[in-house]
Amino acid sequence: MCSTGFARSLGFALVPLATCCIVANVLLFFPDGQLNYVQEQHVTQYVWFFMGIGGGGLAMLIPACVFLGMGKCVYSCGTESCAMCGSVIAALIGLAGSGYCFLISGLALLRGPFCFTRLGWLYPFEQDEGRYLFARERWSECIQPNHIVEWNVTLLSILLGLSTLEFLICFLQFISGLVNAVCRPCCYKQEYSLNA
């Protein structure tokens, strides 16, 4: 039962992380808090990949719900190893979702924001390979939306951090579930043969 308690605590940790990923992704659609940029499609292309909403958010609610329901599953299945097999599959979904969120957020951060410059709407740091992140003096190249570089860098960094935490949590449960699903039946068989 110790491993189900551990899984439940991981499930509780995933819920706020998934919620924060969804909020961060939604905020990326509204730079400077304005609606007109998304209506005119003047937002970075990567926000339409829904990395925080889908990958770090909704996909992460699947393992969160499974981990939180571990106690009920053990009660209905009768064995903890059966429940742990389900948690391993859920953890794999979580690993895929958080990995997707991390990958797309990283690509968006490297490409830089889509903004209005002296040459029109474009990605001014696209060929920069992320060096613009350490050259704040260049951020003024983006005239509109106001503070778009800070907005994107902050929110995408938050998504990177949250998806890393989600990945680690799902990886922990994957290892824990795998060990419990494989080892417990073996241990019970050995214990049974010794008693017999």
Automatic annotation (TrEMBL):
Membrane-topology descriptor: Multi-pass membrane protein
Alphabetical UniProt keywords: Membrane, Transmembrane, Transmembrane helix
Matches recorded under Pfam families: L6_membrane (PF05805)
Entry keyword Transmembrane helix: yes
GO cellular component: membrane
Membrane-crossing residue ranges in chain numbering: 12-31, 46-70, 82-110, 155-175
Domain of life: Eukaryota
Family: Belongs to the L6 tetraspanin family.
Name of this protein: Transmembrane 4 L six family member 18
